[in-house]
Design a protein that fits this description.
A 6-stranded mixed β-sheet has the order 4-3-2-1-5-6. Strands 7, 8, 9, 10 and 18 form a 5-stranded mixed β-sheet that branches. It is of the alpha+beta class. Helix content is 34%, strand content 24%. The structure holds zinc ion (ZN) (3 copies). One zinc ion (ZN) is lined by residues 233, 297, 324, 326, 340. One zinc ion (ZN) is lined by residues 222, 224, 233, 235, 340.
């Protein structure tokens, strides 16, 4: 855990004129103090004042979990008993040295808590917590890049075993269960397992079904987990047996599109230019209408986070940003294909954290 994160957040708050940042169970809480708090009706809240030491308000019965997480290295624990009002506890912390004028509340806090806090601290104007944390999280530190590389290697190791799992007659769900186990060999959490066989591959977020695999089926396999706090996310396409000629043709277009997307990554390039580079290849091949989603999403402690690699996002890429490049072609009722790597922006281009072959793998 990086001991400078709280300090960097406080510097950002001082620069923005924000008096305190309030963080409930969320990726920001994990990022700031390493605590994966349960999202409960009982309030857990990290209170980070711009100019004083952070306090972690937790239900007393959660205090052992909070301590075990190591969060107490960064924040003083303030357990509250069942008969206490946690909103009043937070209010008292916020008003101890005067009336706060601007408070930042973490973007994913339940509205029930946000509304109660707003009623309890009426002096403040409220802003989104991402005003503080987005900039800090979007450019990864060397430690974070190392963690993303390790997660990338871990998911590569799972993909290396997928071909032997794909046999005619096995269902997507059976394959999915086996993949889930293999992900857990070197991840702490499984975030998703997509096995889209035949026509199911044409739905980008199809997960698993009881459809049995058949000879000649294309299979889109998109899998990811969390390893030591950082996420993996990798898609490859397989065929049960021999690859049909039309699928091979579509797949070659996709390989070129994915390469073009990665080749467009560089510091100073816009996020939308990466999307455009991949999309142009697909459109030129006549499949423009079949590429129905953005080209990628940032990744870190969250599976999907900024920057968004999408038309209209003119944000300039910076060295240390991490995101997926995952163009897809989807032909409804027939098949789909998507190739996805997570890349990190380097000083002069991109480094992929995934290294599995990107061509279609014939299984069996
Ligand atoms: Zn997705
Ligand atoms: Zn994915
Ligand atoms: Zn993805």
């Amino acid at each position: 855990m990086d001991t400078t994160r709280i300090r960097r957040a406080q510097e950002a708050m001082q620069a923005e004129g924000i008096d305190a940042l309030l963080v409930g169970p969320s990726p920001d809480l994990r990022w700031l103090v390493g605590y994966d708090a349960l999202p409960l009706e009982r309030l857990t809240m990290l209170v980070v004042p711009a100019e004083a030491d952070p306090q972690l308000v937790v239900p007393a019965l959660e205090a052992p979990r909070a301590e075990a997480s190591g969060a107490t290295a960064y924040a003083e624990l303030r357990p509250w008993e069942e008969v206490e009002d946690p909103i009043a506890v937070v209010r008292d912390l916020l008003t101890a040295t005067g009336s706060p004028r601007v408070l930042a509340v973490q973007d994913q806090l339940w509205s029930s808590f946000t509304l109660a806090l707003q009623q309890a601290v009426t002096s403040a104007r409220w802003v989104a917590g991402s005003r503080v944390t987005r900039e800090l999280r979007v450019v990864k530190t060397d430690d974070e890049i190392a963690a993303l590389r390790a997660a990338g290697a871990a998911i590569d190791a799972v993909h290396a075993q997928v071909a032997e799992m794909l046999r005619p007659g096995r269902t997507e769900a059976e394959v999915g269960r086996e993949i889930t186990e293999r992900i857990l060999d070197d991840h702490d959490v499984v975030n998703f397992v997509i096995v889209g066989s035949g026509p199911n591959g044409a739905s980008p977020h199809h997960e698993l079904s009881d459809r049995p695999l058949a000879e000649g089926d294309p299979v889109v396999v998109d899998i990811g987990g969390t390893r030591e706090g950082y996420c993996s996310d990798e898609t490859r396409n397989y065929v049960v047996g021999r690859c049909p000629a039309e699928y091979a043709e579509v797949h070659l277009v996709l390989e070129e599109a994915q390469r073009a997307g990665v080749a467009a990554v560089a510091p100073g390039a816009t996020a939308e230019s990466v999307d455009a580079a991949a999309r142009e290849v697909i459109a030129d091949a006549g499949y423009g209408d079949s590429f129905i989603h953005r080209t990628g999403h940032g990744i870190g402690v969250e599976e999907h986070e900024p920057p968004w690699i999408v038309a209209g996002n003119t944000e300039a890429l910076r060295a240390g940003m991490a995101f997926s490049v995952e163009p897809g072609i989807y032909l409804p009722d027939r098949f789909g294909a998507r190739i996805e790597d997570v890349v990190i922006v380097t000083d002069d281009g991109a480094e992929s954290v995934n290294h599995r072959p990107r061509h279609v793998i014939e299984a069996g």
